[in-house]
Amino acid sequence: MVEMWLERTELLIKKAGLKKLQNSNVLIVGMGGVGSFAAEFIARAGVGNLSIVDGDSVDITNINRQLPALHSSIDQNKVELMGTRIQDINPQLNLRQIREFVTPEKMENIIQTGNYDYIVDCIDSVSPKLALIKAAKKNKVKIISCMGAGGKLDPSKVIIRDISKTRNCYLAKQIRKRLKKEGIQKGIRCVFSTELQREGSLKMTDGSNFKKSFYGTISYMPAIFGLYAASEVIRYLIKD
Question: What is the pTM of this model?
Fold first, then answer.
């Protein structure tokens, strides 16, 4: 008998689709503005096995766009907060919480020990993102990679395409360039926006956690990227 909270889902995707989701195993790396929304909606769809990864804690600057970020949750670990939230959505969820910044060297080990059906890349810095994509390709695990949501305002410009078709996104450009050196030019699904980034919103950083700069962000854009990624994963998992 289906759980009552999944009744509407079952009406749409039927018992067979729901069963596929319940038997699926998904990894989401990054619990920021994109990853937190992807995690929530993958959990709400009824995916039965989920691993979430992030070593970061909530900062006051996260409140404008990140699901776990509240004034009451400042300095608390994002994975813990999201873990509590999505376990409350689905108490039967088999949830693995990895509370650390995953270095490029650790990416492959996480993938190899998980037996994942799909990986959602919500990392916002180049080197770890590149390492995750390469590890997924090497281990033949499906991945969708979320590119830059910063510096953009128009939700109608967000689309999903192969990495080779991305444009008007500096993060995607860097990833394309570095993947090309590794002999990878296509075969990776990406969420990105074709809207030109607003250069006036760029700010440089000290380069910690592999991040040299960031763009200003509006509340809804990272969430839209996360929902697009969740939709890609769910539709793949339920297909015949």
Answer: 0.95
